[in-house]
Amino acid sequence: MPISPPPRPGRRSMLQAGLGLTAAGTLSACSGFSTGGSGGGDSSAGTDELTMITWAGDAEAKAFQALADGFKAQGGPTVKLQVVPYSEVLTAVDTALRTDSPPDLFRVSYTDVAAYRAQNVLAELPDASTLESSFLPAFWSAVSDDQGTFGIPHHTDTSMVLVNNAAVASAGLTLPTSLDQAWTWEQFVEAARRITPTRADTFPFAVNWQNAGAYRWLNFVDQAGGRLLTEDLTAVAADDAGMLQALTFTRDFFRQGLVPQSSSSRGQPASDLFTNQTVAMVFAGDFLLEEIDGAGFEYSATFLPRSTNASADLGGNALVAVEASAKKDAALDFLTYCAQAQQMGEFCAAATVLPTRTDVDPADLDYTVRPDLMPLYVQQATTIREQLVEQVVVPSFSAINGQLRDRLDEIFLGSDDDATALKRLTDGVASVLGQ
């Protein structure tokens, strides 16, 4: 019997049921757009064509096209993909909504679903009760509230530490190969210091908290047993000791020259710094393996460092239909098609991401890129913790993530003492929450 998800912010029971199996993004804030009313939008596409706004790498674009082709082969309309850069997707969606020319569908990170839901943009999934039992509850909860389900949890991903084999070998490092052997914070820093730069601009590592990924800094907070938001999710945990510990630890990456200054939260993507061999190690999601695999050097993976807890980030994306679309029913049919086990397994294998259905085993998928590393990502994904997930799926999180990006950039590159720096960050988040 399907479980009825609780109203936000009371999400703990659903999250707790889903975490520990597989779990795992986020974009800039969105607000102030026009929804155009139910079914009231006009589309520039033909009457038998759906439009879908998404970001996608080459492998993802092919995987989405395969879904579109399969849907059409089963009698559905053509699905036209509008692929935009990751950093521009919400701008494209919001502009279309404001001008009353909405897309029929779009791809959205779990951390942004609630923001669109709060604006009544998303269409309710009519067959949710028949699908819910097949999905990991953590992800189903990310697209659901007390009024219904507003999209499908299409896939998930999380981060690990990728390492340049030559650089790590020259440092004489032995990589942890299981979660219970993962480096502690102290061991990770010690390992990083043993890596000797081979050129003037080479650094030991970079973290993937740039721009829309600023929320990944919260991994360190959770690892330290801290919180950004209070337990009732309505206020900032301003004096949290774990958050201060995480801030000091991550600021030391910059103060001690372990990471490039350009890898701050508004800086150059960490994966670019790894592929051009500016850094020897990088925190990176499995969805980046295709891009990194083309860099021309051998690399391996190990687990995220841990402190009080092992903890990883909630990654992945949902597919949603737009309430204002004149073709809403056909768009919802496409979501249902994409949510089926065979389609999800084929997409995940092609796009190097993890499934959100309980009946799709990642171990059975024929991953086309680094199938040797994907079982490690599956292990890492089990460390996504309820305490962290519940904080990054609140309706205001898009705006909170923007504050994290801006304040962390000031903090990482600034000279305030740590307590003052933390207050700068918590004041910024409090401003979003209306404190």
Automatic annotation (TrEMBL):
<dbReference type="InterPro" id="IPR006059">
    <property type="entry name" value="SBP"/>
</dbReference>
<dbReference type="InterPro" id="IPR006311">
    <property type="entry name" value="TAT_signal"/>
</dbReference>
<dbReference type="Pfam" id="PF01547">
    <property type="entry name" value="SBP_bac_1"/>
</dbReference>
<keyword id="KW-0732">Signal</keyword>
<keyword id="KW-0813">Transport</keyword>
<protein>
    <submittedName>
        <fullName>ABC transporter substrate-binding protein</fullName>
    </submittedName>
</protein>
<comment type="similarity">
    <text>Belongs to the bacterial solute-binding protein 1 family.</text>
</comment>
